[in-house]
Amino acid sequence: MADKRWRILPLNTEPHYRDAVVEWQSQAFGDETSRDFFASVVDSSLRGADLPVTWIALDDERVIGTIGLWRCDLISRQDLWPWLAALYVDPAYRGQGVSERLQQRVINEASARGFSNLYLWASFADYYERFGWEYQGEALDYPNKKVRVYRRPL
């Protein structure tokens, strides 16, 4: 069950959490060479770009998760947008509803902006389906990694 102390806020309102978000994203989704890439995405959201937007989940003043709404998160499927991207929850908070609240924040934002669908990709099955995401098929993440593409009608 979600803790009422948890808050979901745009990162640009709490920019001092930037380094923690960049570190999480580069470790969870990249490799030793991708920190600068993730920093550039986060920095774009801090500058007030329309997209990407980054949110953080806070438990009091501790950052416990992050998520983004991105224009493109899968180069091989640039025909689809926008994307729920870079969802990460601190391991100590997993299984407590943080992921669901972060997802819902992005879903609400995409809907408010007038999008009719939202997309994400994952390298695993049987997680996002629990939250109403519809499996669309396989695609390739650069350069040749097979991933699963999901759609969420809004």
TrEMBL record:
Residues 7-154 form the N-acetyltransferase domain. GO terms for molecular function: acyltransferase activity, transferring groups other than amino-acyl groups. It comes from the Bacteria. Keywords: Acyltransferase, Transferase. The keyword Acyltransferase applies. The keyword Transferase applies. This is GNAT family N-acetyltransferase. It comes from Izhakiella australiensis.
